[in-house]
Amino acid sequence: MTSEVPGTSPAPAPAAHPLDYMTVAGLLGLYRRREVSPVEVLRHQFERVGRHESSLHCFVTQTPEVALARAREAERVWMRSEAHAFAPRLAGIPYGLKDVISTAGILTTGQSKILQHNLPSKDAAVETRMKLGGAVLMGKLTTYEFAHGGPSWDLPWPPAMNPWKPGYLPGSTSSGAGAAIAAGLLPAAIGTDTGGSIRMPAAVCGIVGVKPTYGLVSRQGVLPNTFTFDTCGPMARTVEDAALMLGALAGYDDEDVASADRAPADYLADLSRGVRGVRIGWVRHWYDGDANCHPDVAPAIEQAMKVLADAGAIVEEIRLSDLLVYQDCKTTISITEMFSAYEHEFRTRPQDFGLMFRNKVLSGSLIRAEDYFQALRQRLWLARELARAFREYDVIATAGWMTPADKARPDTLDKFLRPPNITTPFNIGGGPAMSIPCGLSAEGLPLSLQIAADHFDEPMMFRVGHAYQQLTDWHQRHPTEGMIQ
Predict the structure, then answer these.
(1) What's phi and psi for 456, nearest 5 deg?
(2) Residue 90 to residue 293: CA distance in whole angstroms
């Protein structure tokens, strides 16, 4: 750690600073006007990490030297008089990577003892793109073991905690990313989403999380979870920031056989067009009336639909297959593929997996080929159901998650059979989906709206989400310093 970037020793919490919750777009504006430098921003971010990391556990590995070198380069770029013309699109933006994304010469553990000392020789494609974009890597972020399992206390690193309330969890496997952005430790991160692992932590941490269309962002160099569903995507504070980041990440990669060979869209072009005339299919029955749904969720989503309708959107309730149908299909496929991905380790060193991961994934060895292929056939039917809905509606809207954040319970095993995930249908369908904050529960914990669009129609999804954020201020609510223990 150099003197220019403070270490992680605790310090008294100062008053709120203007940079604490600065957005990506806001930082880029400050850089263009030369009102702040990337090195100053980086110093501030690491100071916050030093104050809060010991309680939040957002990072597996911090990379201050790497970050400082990149921040200095970005500073040189922005100091040039002609910087506007050629500055990389994310020059000087601090970010973190979920620790299943490979980084050359930097520890990439998958939060597992299996890879406790793993130093990859090559960057993942998304890290290469972030480098080309001029962004500043602050470190590798906490996850669940191989982006599965659950919040485990028997791994070499503790699970991340939610900054909104001490003793609460920050959601699913992109947990460190969700917590770090919500706590103001960094403005942006890259997560992965197989059944909701970007959108769920975004939902319970009060930030924006985007699962792009399957194949839009390369997964080369990402530790596998479920090949059929795995997707990388951005996490940030605003829809605009997520659109900026996706513009840097999207693109064809012949090293990922699922990569889509098409030119990425301009994700900012339609951002400010509003929602007048936009057709929204509201899937209310997935959550409203469900015994597992928190009582504050349904009113929050209803109010969000009213905001969009009052702005000119055409909102109509629609019905799709029950969540359990989607969940059973996804689980059968994913548990089979995940066991296959780590079969060798299960045969040679099963004792080195955490208990939650081992108990969950071992069941994949019991799935018959007949069951797996029937699930693949059912997936096609469900994907067609969604495709039919998108022929009638521009976007589908529903709850981002059924509940606020869960309490951390180190003495309780995660359940294998859980209530169905409201995020899973859009992994089955393969199109883009996004969680954005839409309220706070009675306990003061974030609630979330989920917006999904047809394949490669991220611009429409961003347009609706941005319009909602222009009409509300939920994305501007943050935990106070007193909340972040």
Answers:
(1) 65, 15
(2) 38
Place of tokens 């929204």: 280
Residue 257 covered by a domain: yes
CATH of the domain at 251: 3.90.1300.10
Evaluate the CA torsion angle 464, 466, 467, 472 in order and state its sign.
positive
Give residue for tokens 């013309």: 85
Q: If we measure between CA atoms, which residue out of 381, 385, 394, 383 comes closest to residue 458? A: 394
Residue 249 phi, psi (nearest 5): -90, -35
Q: How far apart are CA 193 and CA 446, in angstroms?
A: 20
CA distances from 460 to 59, 263, 306, 471 (A): 33, 17, 19, 17
Q: How far apart (Å, rounded) are the C-alpha atoms in residues 49 and 142? A: 14
- d(C-alpha 117, C-alpha 112), whole Å: 10
Task: Report the candidate in 468, 476, 22 with the shortest Cα–Cα distance to residue 271.
Answer: 468
Name the 3-class secondary structure at 7: coil
Number of independent structural domains in the chain: 1
Length of the chain: 485
Angle at 334 between CA 328 and CA 338, to 5 degrees: 150
User: Is position 455 within any domain?
Assistant: yes
Report DSSP state, residue 284: -
Q: How far is CA 446 from CA 3, 208, 253, 272, 406, in A?
A: 37, 12, 36, 25, 11
Residue at 1 is within a domain: no
CA 28 to mean position of chain CA atoms: 21
Domain around 323: 24-476
Write down the pLDDT at residue 16: 76
Sign of CA dihedral 26, 27, 31, 32: negative
pLDDT mean for each 10 residues of the chain (485 residues):
36 68 97 95 98 97 98 94 76 98 98 97 98 98 94 94 97 96 98 98 98 98 97 98 98 97 92 98 97 97 98 98 96 96 96 93 94 97 98 98 94 67 97 98 98 98 98 95 76
pTM: 0.95
Question: Could you give the CA distance from residue 194 to residue 221 in angstroms, rounded to a whole number?
Answer: 16
Domain assignment of residue 15, yes or no: no
